[in-house]
Design a protein that fits this description.
heterodimer; A: 276 residues; mainly alpha; MetI-like fold; 2 domains; 0% strand; B: 288 residues; two-stranded antiparallel sheet; globular
Chain lengths: 276, 288
């Protein structure tokens, strides 16, 4: 039986939780607000919160001066490409481990997870060297491949936990009715697996979009995504808070929206199914 | 059940993922191991021959090694304590009945989706800047002298930034665990007159133990290799040079690949010690 909660208690909970929530969210809110100020207002003393002359100027200036669209496109290409490539490789693997498990399945899954634990800095120079030798340094293709590889274990694991939840009897029934392996996959499995695949896609896009070790170390000018573009703001030249805010807002807005949709999958994906 | 044919098909379907990951693991790892035994200076003569365990002893013997271990431990430990303690409190709070629960949850989770370079720069400039930052304004408002956060309190600042980024992760996982708690058991305890503290200590905390362990292990693995937050804020100055940042500097900035690779091997061993514990828990869950 649910406990009766007094409205007073509920109001108190609401007040406390909202205050803490807004406090945690404040840096993001402040960044978004600052992006609409002029540079002078951005550093005015006392700070202005809502009552300033809202302007879109910063967004125009950021695009004009830095060719923002190119960095955005690099981010989309690298995050999207690595996720799609990863899914193409991981779906068959996760499918076979979930539906045709063998004695070694568990070991393979754990081993894949262990590759994710490898500290990136430990293999920085080898990858850097291989990239130079193969002409991949500062290319979108090179970065796409690396991000695909570092996220592949998570993709396989997430898909595996989703596929595991599809009842095996349905597949057996299809098989009894004479469905071939390819038919089984296309007509029976795919429709049931789409939600899991979609969640995996979303979370891995977010992870790839925000990745900030390889994207900083393996790109220079041509293939730099938004993570590297924002890092270029770290040496201040005069008044720039409003522009930094505008660039930041553009870089995080799409991901905040995606993150909203993927909050449930986040737990499953990042704990490798250990917490659901 | 599975026929011979489906077994070999399964193996074939697994092959690309397994081969790619095997290559991704073995090739760079072998190279790092090889370089760690060479005197290898790409800008000063290249590969100058066998070095034995020289790089390993020199990496540990260098004056920046122990400070970097200390910085790593302080950052990882500080962030873990803050995120786990606040995460438990937030998870319990968010589990209470309230209006607009969904929105509060999004507000709390949002920092996790902000890319590390953005959060580091926003904190560094708009909050921690000693002249124009918001903190400086608040300090001045109360008549205190503004703090130069990233040089005078560099470690605390970095711990704060990283905790802000990882608190949502801890909260979300602990909240998932709190929600699976048997509410009837809690009510029974409450009726029997158990105080909140004893309910927390004897019922809630044991129930959360597994989730806490997972949060600690996963965060440790990610925190051991934080990079962008330091790269953007202090660049390793003011005592914030962690082990992974030190290795990064040895390898790419001073181009002493042999020495950096030996450091890399240490980092890999360290991460593996943590990983073994995490894998045990995840592996047990697979059997269930």
């Amino acid at each position: 039986m649910a406990r009766a909660v007094t409205n007073n208690r509920k109001a108190l909970n609401t007040a406390i939780a909202w205050s803490i929530g807004l406090l945690i969210f404040f840096p993001i809110l402040w960044t978004i607000l600052t992006s609409f100020k002029t540079e002078a207002q951005a550093i005015s003393n006392p700070p202005v919160f809502l009552f300033f002359d809202w302007t879109l100027e910063n967004y125009a200036v950021v695009q004009e001066r830095s060719n923002y669209m190119r960095f955005l496109w690099n981010s989309v290409f690298i995050a999207g490409g690595s996720t799609v490539l990863g899914l193409i490789i991981a779906v068959p693997a996760a499918w076979s481990m979930a539906f045709v498990p063998s004695k070694r399945t568990k070991d393979i899954l754990l081993w894949m997870l262990s590759t994710k634990m490898l500290p990136a800095v430990g293999v920085l120079y080898p990858i850097y060297l291989l990239f130079i030798k193969l002409g991949l340094l500062d290319t979108r293709i090179g970065l796409t491949i690396v991000l695909m590889l570092i996220n592949l274990p998570i993709i396989v694991w997430m898909l595996y936990t989703y596929f595991k939840e599809i009842p095996g009897e349905i597949l057996e029934a299809a098989r009894m009715d004479g469905a071939s392996l390819s038919k089984e996959i296309i007509y029976v499995l795919t429709p049931m697996a789409i939600p899991g695949i979609a969640s995996t896609l979303l979370l891995n896009f977010i992870l790839a979009w925000n990745e900030a070790f390889w994207t900083l170390n393996l790109t220079a000018a041509k293939a730099a995504p938004l993570t590297a573009f924002i890092a270029s703001y770290s040496s201040p030249e005069g008044l720039f808070y409003a522009k930094l805010s505008a660039a930041s807002t553009m870089a995080i807005a799409p991901i905040l929206i995606m993150g909203w949709f993927s909050q449930k999958q986040l737990v499953r994906g990042l704990t490798f199914g250990a917490v659901k | 059940m599975a026929t011979q044919q489906s077994r070999s098909a399964a193996r074939l379907m697994m092959a690309p993922a397994v081969i790619l990951l095997l290559g991704w693991m073995l090739v760079p790892l072998t190279m790092t191991l090889w370089f760690s035994f060479r005197k290898y200076l790409p800008l000063r003569g290249g590969d100058l021959g066998w070095a034995g365990f020289d790089n390993y002893t020199r990496f540990i013997g260098s004056s920046s090694f122990w400070p970097s271990v200390q910085a790593t431990l302080v950052i990882v430990g500080g962030v873990l304590i803050i995120t786990v303690v606040l995460g438990i409190i937030l998870a319990l709070l968010l589990d209470q009945p309230m209006w607009g629960q969904g929105i509060v949850r999004i507000l709390v989770i949002a920092p996790f989706f902000v890319m590390p370079t953005v959060s580091a720069l926003v904190w560094k400039n708009m909050f921690m800047d000693p002249v124009n930052g918001l903190f400086a304004y608040v300090w001045k408002f109360f008549g205190a002298a503004p703090v130069e956060w990233l040089s005078q309190a560099s470690m605390q600042s970095i711990i704060m930034i990283v905790s802000w980024q990882w608190l949502p992760f801890a909260t979300l996982i602990l909240l998932t665990a709190v929600q699976s708690l048997d509410s009837e058991q809690l009510e029974a305890a409450e009726m029997d007159g158990a105080s909140f503290l004893s309910r927390f200590w004897y019922l809630i905390l044991p129930h959360l133990a597994r989730a806490i362990t997972i949060v600690v292990l996963i965060q440790t693995i990610f925190l051991l290799s934080i990079f962008a937050e330091i790269f953007v804020t202090t660049g390793g100055a003011f005592g914030t040079k962690t082990l992974s940042y030190l290795i990064f500097q040895r390898v790419l900035e001073s181009q002493n690949v042999g020495l950096g690779s030996a450091g890399g091997v240490y980092a890999i061993i360290l991460a593996n010690i943590v990983a073994i514990f995490l894998m045990r828990i995840v592996g047990k869950n697979l059997d269930a």
